[in-house]
Amino acid sequence: KLKEWAKRPLPDVPMHVLHGHTSPVTAVAASAELDMAASASSDGTVLLHRMTKGRLMRSFSHSCSVDHLLLTRHGELLAHGAADNVLSLSDVNGWPIRKVSAGDMPATRLALSPDHTLLFV
């Protein structure tokens, strides 16, 4: 059974245009609870913006194209998978948690278990 939660029409113009990438955007993730949007690009950057103000908060860099993003609801984990098959984990404040090699298998999708204890690659 489908439910329709809102009947508001979409605005004619965007609230904000988020700037900062020098190459095409390859992935986007957002957390309404954090008022935060993350975007990744083929230039190897991951940018964090405030959604309500459109302000750039932080940037992360990778040595190659970042293709996948996952941002947890409360910001305890920002995961980004890149073309070099390396999965980088940090918190939204920029503190690195871990880098993991996926070997010769590219990380084509990222998902988190409902209890936030398992990251699926």
TrEMBL record:
Source organism, top-level taxon: Eukaryota
One function term, GO molecular function aspect: protein kinase binding
Record GO biological process: intracellular protein localization
Classification via InterPro entries: BEACH_Domain, NBCH_WD40, WD40/YVTN_repeat-like_dom_sf, WD40_repeat_dom_sf, WD40_rpt
Classification via Gene3D superfamilies: YVTN repeat-like/Quinoprotein amine dehydrogenase
Keyword Transferase listed: no
WD repeats: 18-59
Pfam families assigned: NBCH_WD40
The Neurobeachin beta-propeller domain, residue ranges: 12-100
A GO cellular-component term linked to this record: cytosol
Keyword tags: WD repeat
Annotated protein name in UniProt: Neurobeachin beta-propeller domain-containing protein
Provenance organism: Hemiselmis andersenii (Cryptophyte alga)
